[in-house]
Structures are given as C-alpha cells and as structure tokens.
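Per reviewer request, we include the raw input and output of the structure prediction for the construct analysed in the revised manuscript.
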Amino acid sequence: MPMMDVMISDKDATAAKIDGTDVSADIGRDLRAIRQSKGLTLTDVATRLGCSIGYLSQVERGISVLSTEELRQVAQLFEVPLSWFLLLSDVSEDERGLITRSGLRRRSGNTGDGLVEELLSPDLSGSYEVIRSVFAPGARLKAPTRRLTEETAYMVTGTLDITIGDRRFTVSAGDSFRFKEELFSWENNSDEPAVAIWVVSPPIY
C-alpha cells in the first residue's frame, strides 16, 4: 500500500501516537538519521515509498505522523525492525532522548544470523551511536564491508578475529580497536559468544 501524500487520519496514526503519547518528533529524528547515514536524499526515499517530498519532510520534522503500515514500509526500506520505532512509545517523556532502560533497547539481527545488536544510545539524533553486539560462535560477516564512519569497539567477553584493510587481528576481552572508512570484516572462530561495545560515528542504524 503506497504511503499517503497528505495528512493521515487519527485512526491510522497508531505508530506515532500510542496510549496518548506523541512520539512523532522522536520517530522523525530517527528517520532522518537513518536516511542520511545511508546517503539517501528526501527525494530518494519519497520516490521509493510513493509519497511526496513535502509529506516526508513533515514526518522528519515531527509535524506529520505515520501509520503503522507506513512505518512498516519505512522499516523494510531502511532494513531495521519495526520495533525500533514502536518501542519509542514505551519510553517516558522525561527520559526520552536521555535514558535507555535495559528492557527497552532497540534490537536488530537474530541468533540465526549469528549477530544480535542492541542500541544503547537513547536515539539516533547525536553525532555517534553506541551498540552492544553479540557474535555467536562460528558467526562471520558475509563479505568485507566499508562504511563512511569512524568506529571504535571494546571487547567485553570472548574472542573475535578482525580484518581491517589487509591486516588481520585477534582481539579478546579487554582489547579494543578503531578504524575509519576502511574495508573490514569479522568472524568468531571460538566456541563461545563474543560481546563488544561498538561506538559508531555518524550513526548508521
């Protein structure tokens, strides 16, 4: 179902307003951050979603709200779970943008893929994000990846083999590493899960 070009009804605005809590501004900021991290313009996203540029701009500024179906389309386009946006409605207004409770971390990935990540940052509006990454035994990145980011990670538990450019390293609990806009890959060749705290600038999720 294509996204609507103009205002949507109160009945449809379930994603941004739940139990009387208006989180449209928070959702809009996250949408803008994810869009920019993927190098997409308003025109790019509006075209793919079948909506007007003006409507999408209003959503990012918290003026217009998205229906659940529209949010689902956005989540699919940006390759993030729908829960990333819906969980915002469970955060109290006083804590929104400041505190991340352990039970309200936004999660991506699954154990079947070998990597589960949780966003520790309250939202994506800052200049960096903090992620808790859990790498299952035997998990590996399918292909070397290059991102337009600077990244630092601290190993909490386990062991991970990291390739940065043409250099390969093994890092364990207590070690940390950093790279910037370089080709990288990782794999967990041990029998135990590896956990890392990852700081990424600018945010990419």
